[in-house]
Every structure is written in structure tokens, then in C-alpha cells.
Write a structure and sequence with these properties.
Layout: H1 2-23, H2 30-37, H3 43-47, H4 51-66, H5 70-78, H6 83-99, H7 101-114, H8 118-142, H9 148-167, H10 174-188
Helix pairs in contact: 1-2, 1-4, 1-7, 4-7, 4-8, 6-9, 6-10, 7-8, 8-9, 9-10
């Protein structure tokens, strides 16, 4: 029974992500989540103590779903340690994140909502800060070129490229986006 409840909770949170991406934070209601998840009305309210709880869990779920799988991590660890390899890893990262379009759009909605909800802002700030620091640690352990500042600069640059790709996809062609990622790595990450 517990497993089924956790599966139902995950399905409801995934439905919340879809609602956030499509309707925005103002459209996120328990009823909208129930409809998206195709469950009886009132189900979401049985799983989440409040709308804030649902918003927070949706944000955590996006990050969970964006994590690379073990196979990808193993490939990355076996790859070279030069800027060309680094650029390839960053292109893969941008592609993986952009492929989860609704998740990233939901995160943008959550960030906007966090400007009005201090508790959500606190949770998101803690999560994003931890994610950035985990990326820095992974980078330092990987032996890839560049330092912690390069990781942070790439984080900022590539996040906006992803926003551009998801919201105004015709600004840059796919080939231009690939070249932009490569150029960002080449210019931000010190040679050697």
C-alpha cells in the first residue's frame, strides 16, 4: 500500500509540473492537478497539506527528474579531460534539460512565484545553491579544465540559453545553439 501511495504522489507531482508549465503558478490548483493526473477530485488535497507544499514538491521533483542516470555519469567519467570533451558534456546537459521542457518551464514559474512567497524562495534558494555547489564539487573531482568560477559562469550562461530555447526557440537555430555552448566553454574555461 505504501508503494502505491508513493507512486500516486509522484504522479500527482508530475501532473503539477505539467500544470505549472502550461497554466503558470496561478493555474496550479488541486483540482487542476487532479484533472491532469486523471484521478478523482480531492485526491491531490489528500496528499499535500497546502498549495505551497505542492509547489515545493513540484520543484524538488523537477530536479529529481533532471538528474543524469548512472550510465551517463559513467560515460562522463570515462571521457577525456579537455575543453572539447567539456563542451560536449555541456551540449549534452543543455539538450537533456531542454528535452524536459515542461520541467524547466515549471521551474521558471516556481522562481517567479518565489518572488512572492518567502518560504518557497528559501526552499528554492537552498536547492539551487546546493545544486550549483554539487556541480562545482563534481567538476573539481572530474579533473576537467577550469575552476569553480568557470562552473558558475557556465551555469549562468547556459541557463539563459535554455530559457531562450524553450521560450523563443527560433532566436537561434539548433546549430547556432551548439556553437554557442562550445564557444562559452572555450571562452570561459581557461586552457590547460
Amino acid at each position: 500500500m505504501v508503494r502505491r501511495n508513493e507512486q500516486r504522489r509522484a504522479a500527482l507531482v508530475d501532473a503539477a509540473i505539467e500544470v505549472l508549465a502550461r497554466e503558470g503558478a496561478r493555474g496550479l490548483t488541486f483540482r487542476a492537478v487532479d484533472t491532469e493526473a486523471a484521478v478523482p477530485v480531492g485526491t491531490a488535497s489528500n496528499y499535500f497539506s497546502s498549495r505551497d507544499d505542492l509547489l515545493t514538491q513540484a520543484g524538488a521533483r523537477v530536479y529529481e527528474r533532471l538528474q543524469p542516470d548512472e550510465e551517463l555519469i559513467a560515460r562522463q567519467r570515462a571521457a577525456g579531460r579537455d575543453r572539447e570533451t567539456y563542451a560536449g558534456l555541456m551540449r549534452e546537459l543543455v539538450g537533456r534539460i531542454a528535452a524536459f521542457r515542461t520541467g524547466y518551464l515549471a521551474l521558471l514559474e516556481l522562481r517567479l512565484e518565489a518572488t512572492r512567497r518567502p518560504d518557497l524562495r528559501e526552499v528554492l534558494t537552498e536547492r539551487v545553491r546546493a545544486d550549483v555547489e554539487a556541480n562545482v564539487r563534481y567538476h573539481e573531482e572530474s579533473g576537467l579544465p577550469g575552476d569553480a568560477m568557470a562552473v558558475r559562469l557556465l551555469y549562468l550562461a547556459l541557463n539563459w540559453l535554455i530559457v531562450e530555447q524553450l521560450t523563443l526557440p527560433d532566436v537561434f537555430t539548433p546549430d547556432e545553439r551548439e556553437r554557442l555552448v562550445t564557444a562559452a566553454v572555450e571562452r570561459i574555461v581557461a586552457a590547460g
